[in-house]
Design brief:
By secondary structure, the chain is an alpha+beta fold. Among the domains are: about 5-145 and about 195-235, Immunoglobulin-like; about 255-340 and about 380-545, TIM Barrel; about 675-765, Immunoglobulin-like, CATH 2.60.40. Helix 5 (about 385-400) packs across helix 7 (about 435-450) and helix 9 (about 515-525) runs parallel beside helix 10 (about 545-560).
């Protein structure tokens, strides 16, 4: 039997409310539906629709129980209504029904598709309305027109090209077991168009997307929910769209500064002796590292995963171990998941208190163990506030011992057929569960760290950016998976996430030495850097060449930490995550709209990872001049160049005009004070950089340059400043705070000057 379609054809009546317009509509089959249109912000329109009558607005993914309401003007004529703010105009045609959204200048952003039919009159895509299957299941639909050049981005961490037009998929949280398919640990019902709008589907249910797959001129989605509810954000550049999305679902907080150091991990370190040996090797070999992570075996064999208790035979006196590691500059991360082994004391405690998802008989819903030797598992019910508090309480003793962070693994298996404490159907909890799980752990870490919380999470949905950091899951140790992982990360960043990492070397199987080097170069220029896999991923586990290359890049990352942290800390303000696709900064350049194997790293760097041991790498440089970081050769954009990349070279380019603050070499974050402060300058016209730190006050760095002089000011810093100025003629005079500087160095187009500052320093270079 075919599905029954009820498609909205016209509105019968409307009512102007204080903060919304409400429509009573009729389908082509004579059924009724209610539609509500409102404006929570002047550049955001919210549309809700349900068969029969709408219920009260829900708040499953949003950060506020009550959204603001922006006033709008209201104009009616014989053909329909127009609702307007200074930024958006929403035209609602009466018969046939159609919603059309234009920006403040009248430019078309979004229009519901109503006319995509074959020459025989058969619809190519399901339009605004709903379908009902023979079992009574309902799927609510929206469809919109695609312009010939339109591209669509986001949808979560999907291991596909960033332009997802032409694809069809279902947004359903899944343990993907790879990073090379359309399955996703992190489906996010949010996407952007290159035409200047974005859309958040406010639902945690299963969503079916067709992005021009069935019909190349139409896209749409169907939601298995009680109502259709979405927010359309319009008329802005991509960073502004992300910031408005964060207004709805939450701004990503800045993780603690130490988290931007290097993380060492393996699946799995098995004993205290092994951990202490690994830590000693990092320090002995001069390879910076801040975090050592322990995967499940810190709890013992698989039958104890996840009981949140130490195996003290393998890890005797863990508090002492953690304290000794901390003295050496290491923090400890511990693995967990939200599934409790049947028959363990923790299971008995949770079952007796009713803290687990239940089956139809009221017993704990058991899912299969995922590792050999593991019993069936109960699932913690985070819709129950008491269960969440219980789970947090189990973390507090570990945090008191000095554990810094938890890897909140899994979360994709919340049973859709389970019964949940708050009454939400399991089909609507499944996608939401990772957010509830990670929020629970993030909050207890945040409490223990006095406001510097984080997790290391795998699964996510819209709003999960409030609980960073997320990593890319279980990749294979191949160049193909390395490239797919990068695409997944860039898609996640376009879905509103600011911090993303991946397993350097790939997770499963041994890593080829060349692959490890290339993945490390990518990883050390990602927001967070962790080596992890089922075989050793420490750089000395390969050969001397690998270790030497790794050491070079990890030391560079640590010198760049002032730059990295400052760029990350301004994400909420700028809408530009530290690591991001080029289209966020250059949306007017059509070539950037499909670039997903290179990316920007802060405001200064363009990174082009290499997916082979040695290669001639095609690199696209957007408008402006770009300087090869290694050779200082200048390349004019926009345009393509080819960069030869032997194994030890990551193609890295600096935007002309950039200021890159750098610190001294360190073994771990904040091992040494930021003295001297090195400023790597690639001057052109004028430049500014705001140097931010967790503890110190901000430092303002700015310069202006004309045809014969450069003037630099450093405000708010006390200590030695070393300035490296690239591309200048040889100076004939240098002054600091008006007084001549006696000595400086100039060679190969680089001037190096060092001078002291006391809260403020002024440098003038004449050439």
């Amino acid at each position: 039997m075919t599905e029954h379609r009820s498609l909205i054809r016209r509105w019968l009546a409307y009512e102007r409310e204080v903060n919304a317009a409400r429509f009573w509509t009729e389908t082509q089959t004579g059924e009724e539906a209610e539609v509500e249109i409102s404006f929570p912000y002047p550049d955001v329109v919210r549309l809700r629709m349900a068969p029969d009558r709408l219920g009260p607005p829900r708040n499953r993914l949003l950060v506020a129980d009550g959204l603001p309401a922006f006033g709008f003007t209201f104009a009616a004529d014989a053909q329909g209504l127009t609702l307007s703010t200074p930024f958006l105009h929403v035209r609602v045609a009466r018969d046939p029904w159609q919603v059309r959204v234009t920006d403040g200048q009248g430019r078309l952003l979004f229009v519901q598709r109503t006319d995509d039919v074959t020459i025989a009159g058969q619809p190519e895509i399901t339009t605004f309305g709903w379908e009902t299957d023979p079992q009574g299941g309902r799927r609510l639909h929206e469809a919109f027109a695609l312009t010939p050049d339109e591209k669509l981005y986001g949808f979560g961490e999907r291991f596909v090209p960033i332009n997802q037009r032409g694809l069809r998929f279902v947004a359903w949280t899944t343990d993907t077991h790879s990073t090379s398919s359309q399955r996703s640990y992190k489906p996010v019902p949010f996407f952007l168009s290159n035409r200047g709008w974005a859309l958040l589907i406010h639902s945690t249910a299963r969503i079916h997307f067709d992005l021009g797959y069935r019909s190349t001129i139409s896209a749409g989605f169907g939601v298995e929910d009680e109502e259709l509810d979405y927010f359309l954000i319009g008329g802005a550049r991509p960073p502004d769209l992300l910031r408005r999305y964060w207004d709805l679902t939450g701004t990503p907080p800045v993780p603690p500064k130490w988290s931007f150091g290097f993380w060492s991990s393996r699946c799995s370190y098995r004993s205290r002796a092994e951990v202490e040996e690994i830590a000693a090797e990092y320090r002995r070999r001069g390879i910076p590292c801040d975090v050592i992570h322990l995967d499940p075996y810190w709890m013992g064999p698989p039958g104890r995963w996840c009981t949140l208790t130490w195996d003290e035979e393998a890890f005797p006196n863990p508090a002492e171990m953690i304290a000794r590691l901390r003295q050496q500059g290491f923090r400890l991360s511990l693995w967990e998941n939200p599934y409790i082994p049947y028959g363990t004391p923790l299971y008995e405690e949770g079952a007796a208190a009713g803290y687990f998802v239940r089956d139809e008989g009221g017993e704990p819903y058991l899912i299969p163990g995922w590792a050999e030797g593991m019993p069936p598992l109960a699932v913690v019910d985070f819709t129950n506030p008491e269960a969440a508090a219980w789970w947090q309480e189990k973390h507090r003793p570990l945090l008191a011992q000095g554990v810094a962070v938890f890897k909140t693994d899994f979360g994709e298996s919340a049973p859709a057929g389970g019964r949940y404490h708050d009454g939400t159907p399991g089909e609507q909890v499944h996608n939401l569960y990772p957010l509830l799980y990670n929020r629970t752990v993030f909050q207890v870490v945040d409490e223990a760290s006095q406001g510097r919380g984080m997790v290391w999470a795998r699964a996510a949905t819209a709003g999960s950016q409030r609980y960073p950091v997320h990593w890319g899951g279980d990749s294979r140790a191949t160049f193909d998976h390395m490239a797919a992982s990068l695409r997944g990360g860039l898609n996640l960043i376009l879905s509103g996430f600011a911090y993303w990492s991946h397993d350097i070397g790939g997770f499963i199987h041994e890593s080829d030495p060349a692959l490890y080097v290339r993945w490390a170069q990518l990883g050390l220029f990602s927001s967070h850097a962790r080596a992890h896999g089922t075989t050793p991923r420490e750089p000395w586990a390969f050969d001397e060449e690998v270790e030497a290359i790794f050491r070079r890049y990890v030391r560079l990352r640590y010198r760049l930490l002032p730059y990295i942290y400052s760029c990350a800390a301004r994400t909420a303000e700028t809408g530009r995550p530290l690591m991001r696709p080029l289209l966020l900064d250059y949306p007017d350049d059509p070539t950037t709209h499909t670039l997903d194997l290179e990316y920007l790293f802060g405001d200064a760097f363009l990174v082009a990872p290499v997916f082979a041991p040695e290669a001639d790498v095609p690199v696209y440089l957007p408008r402006g001049n770009w300087i090869d970081y290694w050779t200082k050769a200048v390349h004019a954009g926009p345009g393509w160049i080819t960069r030869h990349a032997p194994l030890d070279l990551l193609p890295l380019f600096v935007r002309e005009g950039a200021i890159i603050p750098m610190g001294p070499e360190m073994d771990y974050v904040d091992q040494k004070p930021l003295d001297p402060l090195t400023l790597d300058l690639y001057p052109a016209g004028e430049g500014h950089f705001l140097l931010l730190d967790e503890e110190a006050p901000p430092v303002e760095i700015a310069y202006q340059m004309n045809h014969d002089a450069l003037e630099l000011t450093v405000e708010g810093y006390t200590g030695q400043v070393e300035v490296l100025i690239h591309g200048l003629p040889e100076p004939w005079e240098v002054r600091v705070n008006g007084a001549p500087l006696a000595a400086w160095d100039y060679r190969d187009g680089q001037a190096t000057l060092t001078f002291p500052t006391e809260k403020r320093g002024e440098l003038t270079v004449r050439f």
